[in-house]
Amino acid sequence: MAWYIGRRVLQMIPVFLGATLLIYAMVFALPGDPVLALGGDRGLNPAVAEQIRAEFNLDKPFIVQYLLYLKGILTLDFGTTFSGREVIDVMGEAFPVTFKLAIMALVFEGFFGIVLGLVAGLRKGGFFDATVLLVSLLVIALPTFVIGFVVQFIVGVKLRWLPPTVGGDVSFQTLLMPAIVLGAVSFAYVLRLTRTSVSENLTADFVRTATAKGLSRNRVVTVHVLRNSLIPVVTFLGSDLGGLMAGAIVTEGIFNIPGVGNTLYKAIQQGQAPTVVSLVTVLVVVYIVANLFVDLLYAALDPRIRYA
Amino acid sequence: MLTACSDSPSDTESSSSSSDGASSGIVSAWGSEPQNPLIPTNTSEVGGGKILDLIYAGLVYYDADGAAHNEVAESIETEDAQNYTVTLKADQTFTNGDPVTAQSFVDAWNYGALLSNAQLGSYFFDDIEGFSYDVDSPLTGLVVVDDTTFTVKLLQPESDWPLRLGYSAFYPLPAVAFEDIAAFGENPIGNGSYKLAEEGSWEHNVGISLIPNPDYTGDRVAQNGGVDIKFYETLDGAYNDLLADQLDVLDSIPDSAYSTFQDELGDRAVNQPAAIFQSFTIPQGLAHFSGDEGKLRRQAISKAINREEITDAIFQGTRTPASDFTSPVIDGWSDAIEGSEVLAFDEEGAQDLWAQADAISPWEGTFTIGYNSDGGHQAWVDAVTNSIKNTLGIEAQGNPIPTFADFRTQVTGRTIAGAFRTGWQFDYPSLYNGLAPLYVTGAGSNDGDYSSPEFDALLKEGAAAKSVEDANALFEQAEEILFQDLPAIPLWYANVTGGSSTLVDNVEFGWNSVPLLYQVTKD
């Protein structure tokens, strides 16, 4: 087990190098000189632009810029933004916010998705099942920003139950509405996945055996049906954590949440390679760790899977 | 003897003094994360400028109409519009207790002008003796006489120079700023109506809290218990907050609400002309657009655009069709300059001029207008190019460039094909500021490389004129030349669109489209 985890952690190193190089190359390839955008429509005195370029190593060839960036990372120096702030500080502000939002969305989609999916799967073909399927289909069909704007307008402006935007007031209460919007589409997927998985497993041999042994209906459903049905669902949820954090960009924009999505969007627009690369690299690491965690969960869910 | 600034606030209707006394509520206002630390000479965008204007007081300030009044200055005097003597009011202090002296101004300006400090606003000092764009060089034209007096020597006479001094680049700095300018920019110490509520009040990407400065003695005394500037990522979110009374003052309405905001906000809506001029520039070197042929084609293109229809259909009346090259909120503006009839939609006239140009050299190819597609310009560019296409019967289309950085790179490098969008927001309320940086030969923002000796001479003469009236008359003549040559095709003046919540009163927008937050009252 420990050997397996160690091997997986070692595998992160090439992934990390590859990801940073690739993203750095992409930001570098963005057309235009980011420094010239700083002057607005007025433009910039060429000598001043030259100074700023030198300060941020933008006047050096790509590979030199990238190696300087890597060298900085070894000493935990992720570079600075154009406004002179340490990227590590920027990340320290943005990640906790987005992480809170993503975890809330994950809990919401996981809990409600599994519970409703289980009920629908057990009563396959019934009225409840049909309703839930229809609603989840609607949610999948609507883009996140449409759901976001509608919810914001109804709950925030018309009913005034919650402030329309979050801003600096990050709390469980203010993040509730954005988290539900962020998790909505995944919730629909989790629900449908659970439902299909449960209804397939209901007819499986081991369930018939368990019922024949005289186990109570409850025990059959929770221990035998649900536990086996959760394998694809957990896989989905695990990979979704990274997806939620990266996908929060739209939700964060609508609800004005100072998280990773907003920060990343601005950094891409301004062509700030160190900021973009650092943020995305952390997202990649979150992805890898979540996947490792899911793989370890399999063992708990299915005794036939063992890591040696 | 000429004093540039009157001492008493004008008593026009819109000049404001809160009639119901000061209030104690904290006003929340829209803003955006400043792109740089809050250093006056390094702030070139509205997000930072709005905050600086609240926490600093300059030599002069502008009232809602754009008239300049002395703030820290007791007087600004000159005999020849080239040598100025600035006298400060006595006993002014920064919020850390340091006195505001002549040295505070001279040091701050020298810092801003020095090349190696790479300040975005350095060009504001380029007419002071000693300024250099190429090497580090002190401003020799600034001489401290005593604590409250300094003299300024300009490179040439400029009568509107005192008018500029309310712009943020000219604010004073306390000595402590230069010890660690980056740290100072995080927690700036000013001398204005407000100060930071505490160390670290600037929460990045979230907002900044300001409280009234009890030591402030100027005209812009805070009429509320403080200002919380909240940073927003999108205007739509801010607008929803305004509707829900979660935000008190918003200075920009999202496009999506253009058609509805006046109904939704009623008399809390603001929609008035601002000091923003929008145009597109046709480079001088573009094929078919130079010489006599070029003049004819430029006039034809201008007459082929139905500005009235486009501002109504696309901007829902939040733009005003242009009638000159400046802005109606600037003193000296005129909508009756000789030649301005080329801005009226005239199908036959346009076709006739185009045919005359074709007689010189037949037209071929496509007329394009370049723009950055991340800035919401597509709708109007498509409308303008369609207007040209339908009137003149030629191929015309937009040339979208993905990012603003790429757009500026192509414009700066002169590699952009065809015409391109240009916009100008006035730094200070003077006609000169809307003309000199854009059309004088070799000027910093003359991206179309226009060059006219007559125009340059008139601007120089206007700058040296003894009075603002004489100057404006000369600038008007200069505009007549622009109307013949049309280096850029004027389109419209942007309005300031905004609104306020039900919780605040006395919301008024300044000449530069920023609300005068110090006079907003809230209980």
UniProtKB/TrEMBL annotation, chain A:
Residues 95-298 form the ABC transmembrane type-1 domain. The chain crosses the membrane at residues 12-30, 101-120, 132-155, 175-191, 276-301. Keywords: Cell membrane, Membrane, Transmembrane, Transmembrane helix, Transport. The keyword Transferase does not apply. InterPro entries: BPD_transp_1_N, MetI-like, MetI-like_sf. GO terms for biological process: transmembrane transport. It comes from the Bacteria. GO terms for cellular component: plasma membrane. SUPFAM superfamilies: MetI-like. It is found in: Cell membrane. PANTHER family: DIPEPTIDE TRANSPORT SYSTEM PERMEASE PROTEIN DPPB-RELATED, DIPEPTIDE-TRANSPORT INTEGRAL MEMBRANE PROTEIN ABC TRANSPORTER DPPB-RELATED. Belongs to the binding-protein-dependent transport system permease family. This is ABC transporter permease. It comes from Pengzhenrongella sicca.
